[in-house]
Amino acid sequence: GHLPPEDQALVSRRQQALGPAYRLFYETPVHLVRGEGVWLYDKDGQAYLDTYNNVASVGHCHPRVVEAMTRQAGLFASHTRYLHEGILSYAERLLSYFPQELAHVMFTCTGSEANDLAFRIARAHTGGTGFIVTENAYHGVTHAIAGMSPSLGVGVPLGEHIRTIPAPDPLRMTGDLAQSFAAEVQKAIDDLTRHGIKPAALIVDTVFSSDGVYADPPGFLAAAVQAIHRAGGLFIADEVQPGFGRTGETMWGFQRHGITPDMVSLGKPMGNGYPIAGLVMRPEVIAAFGAKARYFNTFGGNAVAAATANAVLDVIEDEGLMQNAATVGALFRDGLADLATRHSALGPIRAAGLFLGAEIVRNGDPLAADATRTARIVNHLREGGVLISATGPRANVLKIRPPLVFSADNVAFFLDRLEAALQAG
Ligand code: PMP
């Protein structure tokens, strides 16, 4: 790729106006102007298959979502300090997708704020200050949460009282995965305790997106949850990535493990691009926080957000998108496995519904991560009109996360382009 002068000018303006902390995707950045369904279009009308978007989860600019959003924007667009039915009917409907123990929901604008609220509630409920996260986790941008997001790298120091544990990687963890992962949680608990720190919570992304996508075997998280509960800490499921049907069989990633979290954070796909996020919890865990604190989030759960998020649930239901994630996800996984038989660079493949991770390795050795080749493949796909990215601590896992309206034809298109990228070397 070669960046046209107009786009080079935008890159300079970004640096001038937005400063040094932002990053663009790709060697040749993509300049998008429009989206529809699984497709995105750049300013020259070139189409890109969006295989990476778990925000526009029911498809870019879904007409029902846009209609609900704009209709409410024209009626009333204020916050949660006036009586309004929209937020309540949405809250009740959202809670109906959870085990009955999880009976309250609070609204925020971002997943980071939801996790930050969970952080505060966990401290108030347990009296503890220790948090346990996985080694390459990402949970958000606030000071407290960036401090428990090791994937941000050494430039963003971990917070006090944070302990990290290895990801549940079946290639690198020995023995029974559930027991080994739980043993790591126990080691972190013991280390906190040894330092006089009471554990407040274990928080994990239930598909371990930034750690490299780990969903199997179903149920492996249960022992880790027992370990944190035994220590008096809470279990927080970060569903910002897997939530809202993406994993196919269930609405939430934690359900794959047969567990009931104490709190669940939600975000990204909740409003299909409109900023709405939230935290679902057991009423008993917020009692201590609620007795003292007042919570008001100016834009969180505003009337437009509620109408938009409600339309997202309508679409998930009416278009059978959870089922589609299961069937098309299985097809996608099989297609990748088939491709792997012909290309030794394509290593282990992991998936739950339409959340897939495929390792790029050297010489068919599943442990020989190849980050350079992975970056080449991601950029080659971009040139071929397919958007994805890479993840994991070794930056060698293709992270594939298309809108849930993805079709069998879209899978075939993707596999064709991936094969071309693999052949290109
Ligand atoms: N948790 C996870 C697992 C995430 O992937 C993200 C966003 N990438 C967040 C939390 C934070 O969400 P937001 O960017 O909406 O603050």
Automatic annotation (TrEMBL):
Return the InterPro entries for the record. Answer: Aminotrans_3 (IPR005814), Aminotrans_3_PPA_site (IPR049704), PyrdxlP-dep_Trfase (IPR015424), PyrdxlP-dep_Trfase_major (IPR015421), PyrdxlP-dep_Trfase_small (IPR015422)
Which CDD domains does the protein's record reference? Answer: OAT_like (cd00610)
Q: Which family does it belong to?
A: Belongs to the class-III pyridoxal-phosphate-dependent aminotransferase family.
Query: What PANTHER family does its record include?
Result: ALANINE--GLYOXYLATE AMINOTRANSFERASE 2-LIKE, PTHR45688
Q: Which UniProt keywords apply?
A: Aminotransferase, Pyridoxal phosphate, Transferase
User: Per the record's keyword annotation, is Transcription regulation included, yes or no?
Assistant: no
PROSITE patterns assigned: AA_TRANSFER_CLASS_3
Q: Look up the domain of life of the source.
A: Bacteria
Q: Which cofactor does it need?
A: pyridoxal 5'-phosphate
* Entry GO MF terms: pyridoxal phosphate binding; transaminase activity
Designated name of the protein: Aspartate aminotransferase family protein
